[in-house]
Amino acid sequence: MRFFLLITMFLLGNVSLYSQGNLDQFKRAIEEKEYVEALRYAPEVVLQHTKDNAILMMAADVYMEMELPDSAVSVLSIAMENDDESPLLNREYAIALSKVGKINVALSTMSALLKRKKMDKDPENFVALSNIYLNADSVLQAEYNLLIARDLDDKNAQVYIGLGDLYFAKKVYELAKDNYEAALASDGKQLTQKSILNAKIKLASSYYKLGNMEMDQQLSNEYFRRSLNTWNEITKADPKNATAFYEQGKIFFLTQVLCEIVPPRPGGTCMLLEKANFIQLLVGSFD
User: Fold this and answer.
1) pLDDT for 217-236, tens place per residue?
2) What pLDDT, on a 0 to 100 scale, did the predictor assign at position 187?
3) What is the third-level CATH fold of 18-83?
4) Which residues of 78-108 are buried (b: 16+ CB within 10 A; e: fewer)?
5) pTM for this model (two decimals)
6) Topology match between the domains 18-83 and 101-191
7) DSSP assignment of the chain, as one string?
8) What are the residue ranges spanned by the domains of the chain?
């Protein structure tokens, strides 16, 4: 009997160590932004921690990052069954629902949340509603909720990111730029590192779009310079961000092509350049 108990304890100990090992690897992968690796551990981590909402929400974030909202909804529904008191959990669940086209369920979830005490005074609930309406292509409703959020707290950086996302979706890049800049210029207390990174990605893209649209060459060059600087900030914060490297390369390539097709000045210098090579000027701005 003692031998049997020892074997049982040994096996249970190994299972516990295996479970902890998976969780550690999962967290490390997220910290290092290795989302493909994190995705590999996510199913087992969810099965091993079905009562831990913090871990379930981490797994849902991985699924959303990997554009698997159906899986995120499944995981977040388990968390909601555990304890649906967290406003953040309700918001993330509703947004995930909207990503899979369940707009009515998402709106119902947010409606229930807003009926709770003081929840209609929290601007982030209206930012979440705007995201849901954006996913439903209801731009006017999205804008309406963001304006409510801004009236509640005009210093909340998340509100300005929401407005930036709205105008970016509408391809009004000047207003998108203004709102992302306002959000990133704040103290950032309401923002996660992920929110900051996503805002910078869209800000860099807005600069690039404005550079392409601008007729004034000097201002166009300035937008390209800002885009490159912002992409460079992104690669420093997230060295594994392939999009950032691709976009920087695209701007360099565009600059080189334009220099080839624009006739040189009498002295043999590309017309896009002022007193120094434009590409070198852009690279130098990283220093």
Assistant:
1) 889 889 988 998 899 888 88
2) 76
3) 1.25.40
4) bbbeeeeebbebbbbbbbbbbbbebbeebbe
5) 0.76
6) yes
7) -HHHHHHHHHHHHHHHHHHHHHHHHHHHHHHTT-HHHHHHHHHHHHHHTTT-HHHHHHHHHHHHHTT-HHHHHHHHHHHHHH----HHHHHHHHHHHHHTT-HHHHHHHHHHHHTSTTGGG-HHHHHHHHHHHHHTT-HHHHHHHHHHHHHH-TT-HHHHHHHHHHHHHTT-HHHHHHHHHHHHHS--TT--HHHHHHHHHHHHHHHHHHHHH-SSHHHHHHHHHHHHHHHHHHHHH-TT-HHHHHHHHHHHHHHHHHHHHSPPPTTS--TT-SSS-HHHHHHHTT-
8) 18-83, 101-191, 202-287
Structure tokens of 55? 């871990």
* Predicted confidence (pLDDT) per residue in 5-59, tens digit: 444 444 444 444 445 778 999 999 998 889 999 999 999 999 999 999 999 999 9
Task: Tell me what pLDDT residue 180 has.
Answer: 96
d(CA 101, CA 85): 24
What's the whole-number average pLDDT of the chain? 83
Provide the CA 51 distance to its chain's centre, in angstroms.
27
Fold annotation for 101-191:
1.25.40
Does residue 79 register a pLDDT over 60? yes
